[in-house]
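## Example pair
The file below holds two records. Each record gives the amino-acid sequence first, followed by its structure token line.
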Amino acid sequence: MYRQLYVALRDAIIAGGFAPGARLPSTRALADDLGVSRTTVLQAFDLLVGEGYAVVRSTGGTHVVRNLPRAPRQKPPTAPAPVPECRLSRAAQAILEELGPPPDPFRPVPFTTGLAAIEEFPVQLWSRTVARQWQRHASAMLGFTSPYGYMPLREAIAQYVMTARGVRCTPDQVVIVNGAQHGVEMMARLLLDPGDQVWVEDPGYVPMRALLRSVGAVLVPVQVDDHGMNVHDAVRRAPNARMALLTPSYNAPLGVALSLDRRLALLDWAARSDAWVVEDDWNGEFRYDAEAIPAVQSLDDAGRVIYVGSFSKILAPGLRVGYLVVPPGLVEPIRQTRRASDMHTAVPVQAVLADFLSSGSFARHIRRMRDLYRQRQETLVELAPRVTCGLLEVAPAAAGMQVVGYLPAGVDADAVSRAASARGVVVAPFTTGTAAVTHGRPALLLGYAAFDRETTRAALDALGDAIRDVMGEGERR
């Protein structure tokens, strides 16, 4: 109550309700008028005096200070406060221009891309692991750790990527970060100067482009075809680029893999040009037609590849843990720059992940999710033409958590996306820059991993209605 009274008196003083030098009501009278104890009023007055709004004079009473600048009268509380125009940095402007209006990616709406089946997360096993780590390593988890990350987790990751992805490294080359995007941002700030060119996939993951632009990089979009990024075209167009950022095992969003000859050409260019390859392997574990393709880093003899992995996409997005495998020459610079930013990733989740990997629980979970996602993709491919009466044809993908859906010729994919959104379904339209992969046909991108058969069927029914509405509008026009 005394704080409420203090705020009311302070606002009245600022708004000019009490003139400079004016005496405030006596504490006894004010307490009687408000029906509160005098102690409450005294506490409010003490705050006014302590913060410089009022003074206690020897002649008696509490007075408003005389030198308080006169502020304009405040608007009534019901009137909305004006929103001042904010001058943003060039980095912030670059991010906003690239990303556009913010979506709502946190609701599991069909067919949002990049969502894992978190209802299948082994919660009970994870809970037992959490309890075990707190019992055994509480003091270690509550203190600082190395800027590179918790050593048991780095050791477990080094072992995992060697056996699962063919990555060649020691634990000293592993750096724990707050998700893959954080890792790429660290590398961009460490290795790029404003004006440096960076090859990026077209199409590619838009938030990664935004962060590269925010550090002043000049993006060189390189078309992706059925064999991945066209490295030979990139060398011809921008041979002096400083970095290449790509998803060679599973292009985001198309799902194609970089062919061997292009992998070798990429490494040859990086070695000759003193450039860096950032290999974002965000979804390399989920391959359905064969064993996972070894990482490009496994072919790198010149130390030019920075390998990026993440637990956020393959386990659960709320974990916000990823990792880098960096060449030995970057280890010490990363330590220094990490100390100047966020020090390190939260230790408790690192400790639990270390146990999860070393015990084999992670590998078992990945195998189970690979089978589940294969089934869910098959369900989507089967149901799409049947439920939509042939208006949507879904092409199966060899890997990943999303597929391409083809619309009838001439249908506006952007309009379908908007119409579907109005029906509670999220589908991303492809742009004209992806014609090489979609063969010029209008197409949509559909995520399927997080949705069971009934959810998928209902969403396809709504999407079919959206397509029919758009086609009907086209006929009327």
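Second record, same layout:
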Amino acid sequence: MNRWNRKGGWVIGCLLITSGLILFFNLWARSLENRDYLRYAEVAREMIRSGDWIIPRYNGAIYLDKPPLIFWLIAIPSYIYGSVTPLIARLPSALSAWIGTLLLFLWGKRVYGTTQSGLIAGGIALSSYQYFFQARFAKTDMLLCFFILLSLYFFYLGYGASGRRRYLFHVLSFFSIGLGTLTKGPFGLFIPFFIMSIFLIKERRWSLLISREFILGYIIIALTVLPWVFLFIHRFGFEQTVALVKDTQILTRHAPIYFYLIQIWGQFFPWSLLLPFLFVHLWSRKRRILYSGESFFLIWFIVLFILLTIFKYRASRYLFPALPPLALMIGGMWKKRASLFFIPFIVFILVWHGVEINWVRKDLSNSPGMVLVGELSPFLKGSTLYGYQLDVSTAEEINFYLDPIVPIPLLENVEDLSYQLRKKEKGLVLMPKEVYEKVRVKKEDSMAFIQEFSYKKGRLVLVSNRPEGHP
């Protein structure tokens, strides 16, 4: 153990290089619809094109499903580079996972006193199913998990510090909570704060919740979150902002109350196989753990798991922030058996990369939007493209790969279609084939068939408002 501890700087350097290679290898290879999420990248693209960095928009409509931080983190480097790419869209998640792995190493080493504990904690998180793949998705889940981890880590450091260092760590903790709130709204605020509160109650120091350093922390959260809120309200007014928030349907996923008891085995795989041994280990040391730093990890997991279970909306990825404390506690349990960890770690890193390489091989077949825009492009020169009764995801993919300054207008009713077909300037309309079959008889004098395209499990038809519309 002493030999490992004496080489702390060397170990950290190797950890950063190894975890960086694992996380960033092939990060650019898959298109964003291929086992990923295109929406946040599209919102960032529209933010750049419109020049409006306050109001997120999706297909031209105001988008309030998520606060703006993820869009800013994608849009800023994309603006510098010149376009939104899969690599740039995934960077917030990958960087969060990279720094998060280092935090788990430092925290595990601090609590359990050995370098092996930190390495195992970081490695278990990195090689678990949910952590690995969320680090490679252009979504908010890894970013939220990172800010929860960061806020709790700085809180833990502040709790054991004194003087100015105590204030500094608590300020950083609450600033992280503010960033988490800008990532995923109330989840980023209430989850870490509730965990802190339960820990302080256990420690019989709940009075810290109204101490000067915590009041300063509340102010830090307000200064982090409220400027965007006020700017948004200034643009739309209070009443319209409230109406927009009410119209936003974010939480819709229902599942049985035992949902997470099942999900944890897959999300934390392969290390979920060690959970029975971990619980036996914790139970055998329950009195000692109660008065040690390890109790914070146990409270973190139990509180979050209970909160998620009683919350009526449930999804597997909501469990994600409950996995780091499990990695930390297994790191403590295995600190004298580090050699048993490395073989399964290497095996499952290779397995997860093998899965993704298989996705990359099927990229075009899993990226119909990219293929569709490639086939559409020769027909669009000098013409305005409209969509008639296209679903939102189709419009999203066309907008992202076509990259227009303004999202393609979507026509919803036959009157709008008739108006576009009667216009003198050249215009093209894309619609599902079954819709085209219904309207072509009535509109055959003003609508010229151009091309039919295969798209997902159906077909789309491109028409022109001119009989001579074929290029």
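Notes on the second record: Residues 2-361 form one domain. The chain has 22 helices and seven strands.
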